[in-house]
Amino acid sequence: MSLLQIQKDYSALQQLGYKLDLTRGKPSSQQLDLSVELLDLPGRSDFFADDKTDTRNYGGLQGLPEARRLFTNLLGAPQEQIVIGNNASLALMHDHVAFALLKGTCDSSEPWSKQGEIAFLCPVPGYDRHFKICEDYGIRMIPIRLQEDGPDMDEVERLVASDSSIKGMWCIPKYSNPTGTVYSDSVVERLAGMKTAANDFRIFWDNAYGVHHLTEEKISIANILERCAAKGNPNRAFVFASTSKITFAGAGLSAVAASKENIQWLLTRLTPRTIGPDKINQLRHVRFLKDEVGIAALMEKHRQLLAPKFQAVLDVFEAELSNLKDVSWTTPKGGYFISLDVASGCAKRVVALAKDAGVVLTPAGATHPYGKDPEDRTIRIAPSFPGLAEVQQAAKAVALCVRLAAEEKLQSK
Ligand code: PMP
């Protein structure tokens, strides 16, 4: 199709006056409705935990045992090695970084902030809010290429072996944000066993999408805590998860699992910070979700709502973009995102064109440290929030913008 024709189609698109938003991976209100029963729990008469704790009162720093039990499968750890947080796992991750900076980890000789400039390894494309934590605290970010089966481990091993300023690494091991990547057993094994120059190195294992399958294939991956322990590095990983995309994104539970020593360290850090978490929310989640089987049943309902939206985007991309050179996209088996790679140097242009046609996309670059995608290629697509018809319209609009940007680039050569 000629540039002129694509421009005409684009003008027609602009005339439609769309107001569509594919930016953040938020659950739709239909998904939130699946957990509306939570709003009636625990009710006025029975707000006591199994051990008769009155959940309305102070205390219970580590979280109710039954709430910790709820997370054992998702985090892959016994309840003694789990701490329940409030509504955001991001806040837990942030606090772990801040605590390590101010006080050091249980293996640090000094706080991270007293050890000169420190750095984190950041698999890319990745999650902008992980990168924001590092940026805000002046932690240097080192991008690592995310491959089909996880981060480029040759590069990771090479860097951590020689550079003791590398203190951490972000990992989204399953249905990664935004590519849907699943880490292979061999990647997990190498992360667990690699030699690190820093003896207080930590992996931030963000299992945000552990039960968020989009297909019938319910993928499970190697247990990082077990593998680290087996390799003689028991304190290496902090494992995070939350119910943000299981129940309510703004009012769920978060949790972290780690070695006994790490958990003791965390509880010591939390002691001056709070007298205890929101145990009423813990109790209502236990009563609503019940157990691993209850969680799986609810996630199946989410899948019924989400999978058609993902399929709609993939169908449109296949129909409209498959013959375009240098354009590709991921086909995730879970999670909340599709990652679209356009021709080099075109991502910003596509996002700007989409905006002018009423479709808001995550800013180009957000998937990379400092918001800078050196190739200007990657665009994160989040189809969960709008209705199915809107997702389809938005995908068609994005595809047209990709074609227009590609044709413009070709003509400018
Ligand atoms: N980690 C990842 C990888 C995410 O995609 C998100 C949500 N977009 C979060 C963490 C945020 O989780 P929470 O709501 O528990 O803070």
TrEMBL record:
A GO term for molecular function: L-aspartate:2-oxoglutarate aminotransferase activity
Protein name, UniProt field: Aminotransferase
Organism encoding this protein: Edaphobacter dinghuensis
Keywords carried by this UniProt record: Aminotransferase, Transferase
Listed CDD domains: AAT_like
Gene3D superfamilies named in the record: Aspartate Aminotransferase, domain 1, Type I PLP-dependent aspartate aminotransferase-like (Major domain)
Lineage: superkingdom: Bacteria
Membrane-crossing residue ranges in chain numbering: none
InterPro entries: AspAT_Ic (IPR024551), PyrdxlP-dep_Trfase (IPR015424), PyrdxlP-dep_Trfase_major (IPR015421), PyrdxlP-dep_Trfase_small (IPR015422)
